[in-house]
Structure of Hydroxyacid dehydrogenase:
Amino acid sequence: MTNTVLLIEPTIRPNGVQYLSDHFNVILAPFGQEATIIEYLNKFAADALIVRTEKVTKKIFESCPTLKVVGMHGVGLDNIDVVSATENGVLVLNAPFSNYTSVAEHSMMYILALSRNLLVSDKKVRTSEWSYRDQFFPMEINAKNLLIVGMGKIGQDLAKKAKVFNLNVYGFDPFLSESEMRLHGVTKAESLIDILPLCDFISLHAPLTKGTYHMFAAEQFERMKSSAFIINLGRGSLINEASLYDALVHNKIGGAALDVLEEEPPNLHHPLFNLDNVIFTPHFGGDTLEAKDRCSESISLEVGRSLKGQISRNLVNPKALGDARVNQSIKKGVN
């Protein structure tokens, strides 16, 4: 019997859809709400689900007995209840190697844009304020100090790009040793709070966990240079936005660039929107066309491998392997 894969509109790129359609039955749900996902998974007895931003909750895992695999079209997994997936014997996959180059490039763009106050400069020219060139003096990034928080694939690629611009690169990541960082031309920072006064740019690429939630708040901003810039391409809640606003308004730091926010999409009256020294993008640092194609191809192939009984290299909850067949049998028996 051919397996069935549920996709959700708007869905993954055509190359991924084509692969899945060539090998499996593909069903498309019009919405990504919990009730709709449950309805479609059960109506079509779907074996796999691929999501982008949709939440895959405990109720979904407990309500859908045929579900065997959930594929995340991206890297972050905070929208998927991985614990519940494991308890229900459902394999969770992501695509960790598809977009790191795009995110690293986005971070470099932010570094350059912040150093030249690009958005304000553009606005001044458009409003005939040419004299701005005598009021603001941009800075070089040459020989400045960059701290990368989170030295995974994104952080490593950013370090490589930053070295081309002759930035001094420091890394904060408790999971990488000093020798491992040295391989990437990076100096390991043992203490986040101690390295902050040295930094001109700080780029966040850490996952959101209990330990990283609001890792940048009032205490951290107090330690930063008044000219320093913070960049967030990780998760919105790595930064306490109220503390960031206070730091920016009182000139405790120089500016910020945010691809992610605590609430997405944000409220139109978000206080940070009133500040000229903040750059925003809509959580698409990793969403270049090239990255989306790679991501769609990767997650489709890996979901396919899992449905064929092979172990995916991108499996994030290997503990589910032990109970997957048992749990699926139990759920099918109950239903």
The chain has 13 helices and twelve strands. Residues 42 and 64 are 6 Å apart (CA to CA).
